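User: I've been trying to design a sequence by hand for this structure and keep getting stuck. Would you show me what you'd pick, starting by listing the structure so we're on the same page?

Assistant: Good idea, let's start from the same input. This is the structure you sent:
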């Protein structure tokens, strides 16, 4: 039964929403108190959502020190128009933090700082769009008027197809290896060979380090060798590869001390997010790329001494403050500790799940904090929406093309983010038992 207090709050809320959420542009301003109440009720929707029970949504509470750094610069509204990692730039204020961040990330990935640069993006989608844009410009100079295309798998992040649409570039599917759940190198060679015979000479290939749905990764080494062998035979074919590491870019370096993606000559750019495992406020991402590419898209700014080599142009300096602070407070040791702890939680989750549901198939990678679970069809029908929403579980049927078959599969994804603990895992497993 609804209490009198609850009824009063609901009545106040309905009045506030009636007067504050008008569908027309107001003739006059409304009272600050009414504004406060309206925003309070809007914010309440977030505070009621229990992020700490979240196993299936790719979101995590941001670190308090990152919030503090973000707010510390918010009132001065710093603008990062331009690229502040360039050698001859003269950064001001938080622009110095951006330059420092790029140098730190190049160091993390063991990239030559004289040959690489980058900038802070809004996240993986912008990083992918930038890669397609700069990559297509690069290939157009190599291929002249020959056709250029994008190659990706059915698991590749959906933003790649959006990027293909924005840049008017045709995209083709490469099949998934059913064992590794990643791009199959042999099928890649088949697709490239067929497209070459049809007149294509430029190939844009996003490789994924941590697929969003499975946590699996493309084999950079084998794919690079495949392309190298193809180019030995067909010297007028050109390639632009980049790594979409939005998910695993802040995981793998702390599990593999030798991780150095730019050691592979075909890798031209690297995309990573800081609003996932980085614990920074949205939006926060980074793209790193080879300096020689910049000339393909660089534009002068008529009213400023800088040049612009970014997608967005004006970008918030508050993001740089939050990212810089998170890196500074954690260091390699802090990130490594978080990754190791969550790797233990992932292993614990898989062990418990297999114990109660041995028929469930688990897809993952040993250097990922993500796994996908394929529950038996009978069990999926038993899972109520209330249970799924409690733990952030959401799935749609995915049509996937493997080398041996095509299949429609329900992939339930689970992320072991910074905040995850064994209590949540135990709660999930205990409640799941009712539906097996």
């Amino acid at each position: 039964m609804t209490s009198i207090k609850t009824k009063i709050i609901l009545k106040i809320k309905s009045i506030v929403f009636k007067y504050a959420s008008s569908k027309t542009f107001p003739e006059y301003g409304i009272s600050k108190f009414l504004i406060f109440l309206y925003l309070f009720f809007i914010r309440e929707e977030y505070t009621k959502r229990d992020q700490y029970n979240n196993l299936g949504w790719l979101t995590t509470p941001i670190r308090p020190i990152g919030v503090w750094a973000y707010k510390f610069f918010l009132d001065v509204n710093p603008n990062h128009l331009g690229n502040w990692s360039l050698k001859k730039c003269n950064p001001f204020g938080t622009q110095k933090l951006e330059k420092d961040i790029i140098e730190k990330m190049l160091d993390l990935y063991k990239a030559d700082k004289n040959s690489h640069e980058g900038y802070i993006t809004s996240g993986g989608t912008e990083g992918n769009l930038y890669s397609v844009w700069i990559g297509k410009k690069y290939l157009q100079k190599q291929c002249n008027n020959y056709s250029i295309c994008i190659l990706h798998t059915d698991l590749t992040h959906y933003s790649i197809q959006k990027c293909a649409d924005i840049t008017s570039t045709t995209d083709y599917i490469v099949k998934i290896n059913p064992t590794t759940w990643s791009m199959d190198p042999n099928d890649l060679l088949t697709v490239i060979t067929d497209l070459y015979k049809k007149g294509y000479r430029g190939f844009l290939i996003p490789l994924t380090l941590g697929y969003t749905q499975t946590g699996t990764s493309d084999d950079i080494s084998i794919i690079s060798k495949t392309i190298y062998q193809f180019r030995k035979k067909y010297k007028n074919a050109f390639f632009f590869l980049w790594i979409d590491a939005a998910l695993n870019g802040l995981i793998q370096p702390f599990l593999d001390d030798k991780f150095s993606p730019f050691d592979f000559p075909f890798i031209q750019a690297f995309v990573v997010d800081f609003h996932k495992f980085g614990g920074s406020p949205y939006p926060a991402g980074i793209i790193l790329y080879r300096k020689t590419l910049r000339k393909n898209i660089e534009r002068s700014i008529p009213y400023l001494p800088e040049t612009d080599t970014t997608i967005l142009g004006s970008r918030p300096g508050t993001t740089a403050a939050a990212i810089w602070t998170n890196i500074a407070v954690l260091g390699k040791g802090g990130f490594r500790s978080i990754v190791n702890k969550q790797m233990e939680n992932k292993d614990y989750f898989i062990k418990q799940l297999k114990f109660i549901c041995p028929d469930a198939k688990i897809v993952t990678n040993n250097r990922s904090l993500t796994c996908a679970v394929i529950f038996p069809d009978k069990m999926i029908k038993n899972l109520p929406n209330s249970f799924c929403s409690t733990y952030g579980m959401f799935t749609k049927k995915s049509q996937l093309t493997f080398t041996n078959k095509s299949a429609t599969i329900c992939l339930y994804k689970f992320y072991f983010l910074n905040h995850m603990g064994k209590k949540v895992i135990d709660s999930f497993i205990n409640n799941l038992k009712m539906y097996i």
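That's my pick for every position. To get oriented when you compare it with your attempt: The longest strand covers residues 200-208. The chain has three domains: 1-46, 71-328, 345-435.
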